[in-house]
Structure formats: C-alpha cells, structure tokens
From TrEMBL:
Residues 12-246 form the ABC transporter domain. It holds the Pfam family ABC_tran. It is a peripheral membrane protein. InterPro entries: AAA+_ATPase, ABC_ATPase_HisP-typ, ABC_transporter-like_ATP-bd, MetN_ABC_transporter-like, P-loop_NTPase. The keyword Membrane applies. Coiled coil: none annotated. SMART domains: AAA. This is Peptide ABC transporter ATP-binding protein. It comes from the Bacteria. It comes from Streptomyces nanshensis. GO terms for cellular component: plasma membrane.
Length: 255
C-alpha cells in the first residue's frame, strides 16, 4: 500500500471501480482522476451512479472490485484505516445532517475537537473565522431549526471545511433547497473553489457545473460515458446519450 503521492499526482484516483447492490450493478469499471485544486462535476440522470461514486470515494460503501487512491495511498486496501481516510475527506449531502441540539458553532467545532484533537478555544477560533469569511458569523449561536435551508446547507459546508479536508465531496447539495436559496449555497461553493479546494460535485445544476468545473464527467447507467472540459462536454458532446441528456436539460431551461 503506497503512502506517498507522486509530485503533481491526482488527489483522487479510481481504477475499474465496480459496485453492486444485490443484482443491480450501479458502478461499472469506473476510472476517474481528480487533480489538486480542481473541481470535477459529475452529471447524469438520477440513478446514474453519481452518489454511489461519492460514497465509495469516502469508503461509506465498499467497492466490489477495482481500487481507489487518495494522494497515492490505496484506500481500498484492506489494511487501510477507513477512519483515518475519512478524516482527510469532507462530505456534504443533500440532507444537512446538522445536530439539532447543537448550535451552529457547536456543530462546526465537534469534529475538530473530538476527531482532530483541537482545543475548544482553537476549534472555536477557527470556526468563527470560517463563519465570518463565509457570511454566517451572526448565526454562530443559533440552533439549526432557526436557520433557513440555505443557511443550514452553508453551515454543513463550513462544518466539512473545518476539518481542513484534502478533498471535499458535495452530493446534490442544492436538491432539497427552494429555488431562491440555491444561489447562496452555490456562491459559497464558488468561494471555496477560489481558495483552491479540490472538489468532486454531483449536481443537477448544469449552468453551475459549466461555470465552476475543470472536468465534467457524464455518468450513464454506472459508466463514465464521457469526460472533458466544460467546453467539450457541454459545447460539443461526442456521445449520443450525452447529447440527448443535454438536449433535455436545454429544453427544461436548465442550461
């Protein structure tokens, strides 16, 4: 099991990853590389495998075949410490998953203290700095049920950033939001990108993917059918199924 990343090598690499649930093959020999300080957008219809790919990357799902590397370390090796791997990866899902009995500040400082060993003072100072930079410092002492959906999702992103992850995985983070709240969450992701965070984003927000992504991967029935720059995938898709998918998006006014 290699533990050193090659200089300039990918932060995340997947090779021939397969995953089934019962008789349903959800990921079919997926290959993926994510370079440092880049954003990879996963697009495709619901059920195409985007969320499962992210869950495999964070070892929330065990792959059936293939291998995954994080900074050159094969994290699917049976000897890998899954908890140590997860400490290096931030994840934000559709559901905010904030602890309702904890304030915003307490939600954000929990993992830095319990998992990373920061003192309460250091964890709170770091959290307040993040909240201030991302426009949420006034909500530090509020409980989640006093926040809008957009504020809750932004808090969930700040919580993921508070552990200073090597990689940030975002899974349809605007899917549960009212349309008027989507913009504030996507603006936060833009700021995180500008700061150089390496991200993989599963999204139905095609215009956003076109704007922020360095690499776009179109998934269809568990296969990465097409990949390239946003200009290549959105502007001149090669595969017929990609073309059909994007035509539907355009007809729906989402691109």
């Amino acid at each position: 099991m290699s533990t050193a990343a090659a200089p300039g090598g990918p932060v995340l690499r997947m090779e021939a990853v397969r995953k089934s649930f019962g008789t349903s093959l959800v990921l079919r020999d997926v290959d993926l590389e994510v370079a440092p300080h880049t954003v990879t957008a996963l697009i495709g219809a619901s059920g195409s495998g985007k969320s499962t790919l992210l869950r495999c990357a964070n070892l929330l799902e065990e792959v059936d075949d293939g291998a995954i590397w994080l900074d050159g370390e094969e994290i699917t090796d049976p000897r890998a410490d899954a908890d140590a791997v997860r400490r290096r990866i931030g994840v934000v899902f559709q559901a905010y998953n904030l602890f309702p009995h904890l304030t915003v500040l307490q939600n954000i400082t929990l993992a830095p203290q319990r998992v990373h060993g920061l003192s309460r003072a250091d964890a709170e100072a770091q959290a307040r700095e993040l909240l201030d930079r991302l426009g949420l410092v006034a909500k530090a002492d509020e409980y989640p049920d006093r926040l809008s959906g957009g504020q809750q999702q932004r808090t969930a992103i700040v919580r993921a950033l508070a552990v200073r992850p090597r990689l940030l995985l975002l899974d349809e983070i605007t899917a549960a939001l009212d349309p008027e709240l989507v913009g504030e969450v996507l603006n936060l992701v833009r700021e995180v990108k500008d700061e150089g965070m390496t991200m993989v984003i599963a999204t139905h927000e095609m215009a956003f993917a076109r704007e922020v992504a360095d690499q776009v991967c179109f998934l269809d029935a568990g296969v990465v059918l097409e990949r390239g720059t946003p200009q290549e995938v959105f502007g001149a898709p090669r595969e017929e199924r990609t073309q059909k998918f994007l035509r539907r998006i355009v007809e729906a006014g989402r691109l």
